[in-house]
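Q: What changes when nicotinamide-adenine-dinucleotide is included in the input?
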Amino acid sequence: MDITSQEIESIVRQVLSGMGSAVPGTVPAQTAPSPRPVRGNPGDRGVFEDVDDAVQAAWEAQRDWVAHYKIEDRQRIVEAIRRCARSHVEEWSRKIVEETGMGRYEDKVEKHLATINKTPGPECLSTEAISGDAGLMLEEYAPFGVICSITPTTNPTETIINNTISMISGGNTVVFNVHPRAKKVCADCLQALNTAIVEAGGPENLLTMTREPTMENVDKMAANPNVRLMAGTGGTGMVNALLRSGKKCIGAGAGNPPVIVDETADLELAGRKIYEGASFDNNILCFAEKEVFAVGSACGELVRQLQKQGAYLLNAAQTEQLVKIVLQPKQGGGHEVNKKWVGQDAAKILETIGVKVPDSCRLAICQVPADHPFVLVEQMMPVLPIVCSASFDEAVEQALVAEHGNRHTASIFSKDVDHMTRFARAIETTIYVKNSATKAGVGIGGEGHCTMTIAGPTGEGITCAKSFCRRRRCMLAEGGLRII
Ligand code: NAD
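A: The predicted holo structure follows.
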């Protein structure tokens, strides 16, 4: 592209006037190159037709966000986002069920509330200081700039709310590429949050997206120099594609969480918590219990406890009938999930094989060998396979195979500290829960903050504002400013 000297002069003037208007005490906007100095389509409260316009608008908003807003402004705007999201929880939960056709309304309400209430804001960006003979060192969390965030169909608006709070708390702005199966509710959510941000005195377009999300848009964002970080929450294919993009990425990929129940476990507790976790939102959560390895005598009693909670126990013939319906042969061998059945109610799934259960039955269970497809495939539906393992060591071996090295989530029900430690060391997952449902590991019924982006592959773990920031150091030598 040829740029005339007048155009260069105009760009320099724009940049200088932007720097001059910074409020005292704040840092002037950094001068990242803008590929399109003149903004295109203004968008509709953050929703754009063209991805370059969406990036450009988020880029301009980010310059404004870091130049003219203090940390206390970020805090105030994050609180406005929480209030806005709280007022839409029922509406968005209902719309997600309608648009994606997956999951359970009441569980989506709980997931939203955990995300809204337990995603930390700017307060988690703690400065580190070292004061010593050689001077004063400060390390702070600085923004990357514009972040591209790819969101899943399984937690669509929950991920938008969670990523928005984390990313803008760190001084970034976000261009979302949402899952096409949830694009309407995601646009509603993003527009409502942008409206709340502007009403609270924040800039327009802190959050943007394209009305039609596509893979091509993701490629364009990866190639756009104004997008500084790619964050992807979803399946393995997407995370691997991001890692190949050549850009800094945060990848939150698939899991297939195993649960071990050993002979020392409180089996009533195990039955109750596994039923609760594996049926939550019809098991579409990446961190939900996907298969159980019950050791020796624990097996029979665990099955009885799960039945007591309301689970329907499939016999061997029914189990194989169901495999043919909810799974399908995969190219190159093995099985993959038939997406039609992901996140459906247990009653609806069981109906396909002629089994009638009341709507209150949230989970089907079956007893299978460790190499059964229900154990190995991340099915994301309320059909929970239970393997009877001969020993604790065998259960650990089988759990490692089933988890596929995702290192995402695992849990154990046990009173044996040695078993708890040995499984944790072997499985190496980001989330490891003892004696509760795995959702406790993201703060839903457990301690600690909540996230919808569990970045195992790239190592950020249970993400928060810190995860989406750059560490920057300032070193003041010769003892200046020290008070001792
Ligand atoms: P998905 O991988 O089908 O889609 C996720 C997102 O990635 C969507 O926006 C989709 O459009 C996009 N996408 C897919 N392939 C892509 C590619 N090649 N390049 C760029 N973008 C691509 O996943 P889903 O069905 O929406 O979600 C379920 C999966 O996500 C499960 O495997 C689950 O375990 C995982 N998940 C992980 C986390 C986590 O925090 N680790 C959270 C939620 C879901």
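Observations recorded in class: The radius of gyration is 25 Å.
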